[in-house]
Write a structure and sequence with these properties.
about 325 residues, alpha/beta, 12 helices
Length: about 325
């Protein structure tokens, strides 16, 4: 569990772990250079409960903290929890049972609930084993967020061999989790057993920047390469489309910022990317958009922007 400046939340988080109905746990807290009381709070848990071990390190980021925790763990099953979230008290028991009941599954996962907010409604109503193709089909669609997060999952240790979270990335899960989904069947538990705290100052709420969009584009590009190499054509096409959409947004963003040189460079990259992967399956509208972007990237960006504003206006409905 990575911990960085979450003193206001870490007690609730760790208490939810130590109070699990499945009590055979190894709890590794990685204090990633916190400057508040998080480190001391972690030490207090370790002094109180022998299942807890604390690793203190200089601030190296979420990926490195997870990697350190993973390499330090010894259990046959592994899960991840962010330091400002928490678990339903039956989270571990439900996922252990799912793996025990379905030996072919390499990963068990639950839905999650946003707090404040509501649950992500899972695409099944009872525990279901999904084939690799079925899991990737859900990953490449509206359930992408559920299948992409590294949390809310329990992994058999062997599927994480050779898997690391990339240091310095802003979308570390996008570079990682799909590779695990490709390794074998997934047992999906529909109940929202992971509680995902929505914070205005959290990582996922950070303002959209060119660096963040570039990171997301590179993740989607890597997904497309790996999925295509493994023969998952539909998912690869979907990943390429995600990269294309984000490239459109990136050109729009740098134009709004007023960076003309960057806008020109990103437009050229958009046009080049639009000419690749044309044989992959994709919706007709996106095929046409890619053809347009290959010749007229800036005009396609403007059309994309106008379409997005019109769609948002329709969703909001009339005012008054």
């Amino acid at each position: 569990m990575p911990v960085f400046n979450v003193a206001a939340y870490v007690n609730e988080c760790v208490e939810s772990v130590l109070s699990q109905s499945h009590s055979q746990l190894e709890v590794i807290l990685v204090n990633d250079g916190s400057t508040d009381d998080s480190g001391a709070l972690c030490d207090a848990f370790a002094a109180r409960d022998p299942r807890v071990r604390v690793i203190h390190q200089g601030n190296a980021g979420l990926s490195t903290a997870r990697n350190v925790g993973l390499t330090s763990s010894t259990g046959r099953l592994v899960t991840f929890l962010d330091g400002d979230d928490w678990w339903n008290l039956g989270f571990v028991a439900a996922l252990v049972t799912a793996l025990d009941d379905h030996p072919s599954a390499t990963v068990a996962m639950s839905s999650y609930a946003r707090v404040p907010g509501g649950p992500w409604v899972a695409p099944v109503t009872e525990t279901t084993v999904l084939s690799v193709a079925e899991a990737l089909g859900l990953f490449a669609g509206p359930d992408h967020g559920l299948f992409t997060t590294a949390c809310a999952k329990l992994y058999r240790r062997e599927v994480l061999e050779g898997v690391t979270f990339p240091p310095g990335r802003l979308h570390e899960d996008e570079f990682t989790t799909y590779r695990v989904l490709m390794s074998g069947p997934v047992a999906l538990v529909p109940e929202p057993l992971y509680l995902y705290r929505q914070r205005s100052d959290g990582i996922t709420a950070s303002i959209l920047t060119p660096a963040r969009l570039t990171d997301a584009i590179e993740a989607a590009d890597q997904q497309a390469v790996d999925l295509l190499s493994a023969g998952h054509m539909r998912a690869a096409g979907w990943a390429q489309d995600q990269a294309f959409r984000k490239r459109l947004r990136l050109v729009e963003l740098v134009e709004q910022i007023g960076d003309r040189n960057s806008a020109a460079a990103q437009s050229a990259q958009l046009a080049a990317a639009a000419r690749t992967g044309t044989a992959l399956p994709r919706p007709r509208a996106l095929r046409l958009a890619r053809l347009a972007a290959a010749r007229w990237p800036r005009s396609t960006v403007r059309a994309f922007s106008l379409f997005g504003r019109a769609r948002n206006s329709i969703r909001r409905g009339p005012v008054g």
